Amino acid sequence: MGLFNVTHPASFLLTGLPGLESFNSWLAGPLCVMYAVALGGNTVILHVVRVEPSLHQPMYYFLSMLSFSDVAMSVATLPTVLRTFCLDARSIPFDACLVQMFFIHSFSMMESGILLAMSFDRYVAICHPLRYATVLTNEIIAGMGCAVTVRSFITLFPLPFLIKRLPICKSNILSHSYCLHPDMMKLACADITINIYYGLFVLLSTFSMDVLFIFLSYVLILRSVMAIASREERLKALNTCVSHILAVLAFYVPMIGVSTVYRFGKHVPRYILVLMSNVYLFVPPVLNPLIYSVKTKEIRRAIVRMFQRMKM
């Protein structure tokens, strides 16, 4: 069947919390607060890393990449989420849904890649401190950022076309207030084996590999730290990793939870699944700037100086 004679709905209908539609307006306020914190907090971090010379170091360059991906993820979901919960405007054109799906999955993969790059930064800083400046040069950091971006674009570029080739005729109602590949492909009245296998390939070749290498980097870090004689020095070395570990947990724990429940939680209410998916997408952009602002004194001091200059 040709690509351009496949039956598609003109638009999809998005859903807030299935079965709890009367609570949508109550959730609008907390969602607006979360978006304000995510956009405001990450924008502040991007600004202070740019203007503060003391933050022009590899660790903070990677943090600014993480903040950028969080801002991009928030911007990708914000229009449909707020329209659904605040205005009860649930319709989204078919092609616009494909575009949103591509960007949501791309920025999610980008964040995973940046967290891996940050773990490499911590590994070099703790295990090979004398080589830190020569290994993580500005050129290498820029190259790692480009590699993460290109990987996301190339890997996920086929997704919209894999959806567009399918006839969508079971329904046009999606399970979330944004567009996701697994949600859209389930509405097809055709064989979706290719979509399933490609989704599995993406999961195993990117997210799973990122988790594996992050885990291995921390095994090497712990081995190196345990070799340090002084207890104070060990704690000091580990303390530089706390913010990154919390960011990794904030990103991967909800993702693994959602994947597990979707595959094995057959009797879990649907609104629980949707709520967990929302946690996976919305919580990391909110928590990351808070984690780094609280746990990293250099970021905290730079933010204080920025507000002091604004007052003056």
Search tags:
312 residues, 2% strand, OR51/52/56-like, sensory transduction, Rhopdopsin 7-helix transmembrane proteins, two-stranded antiparallel sheet, single chain, mainly alpha, cell membrane, 12 helices
What is the gist of this entry?
The mean pLDDT is 89. The termini are far apart. By secondary structure, the protein is mostly helical.
Can you tell me about this structure?
This protein is 75% helix and 2% strand. It is an all-alpha fold. It has a single domain, classed as Rhodopsin 7-helix transmembrane proteins (Rhopdopsin 7-helix transmembrane proteins), CATH 1.20.1070.10. It has a two-stranded antiparallel sheet with strand order 1-2. Helix 3 (94-127) packs across helix 10 (242-264). The mean pLDDT is 89.
Question: How would you summarize the topology of this molecule?
Answer:
Elements: E1 11-13, H1 24-51, H2 58-86, E2 91-93, H3 94-127, H4 132-135, H5 138-156, H6 158-164, H7 181-185, H8 193-226, H9 231-239, H10 242-264, H11 270-295, H12 297-311
Antiparallel strand pairs: 1-2
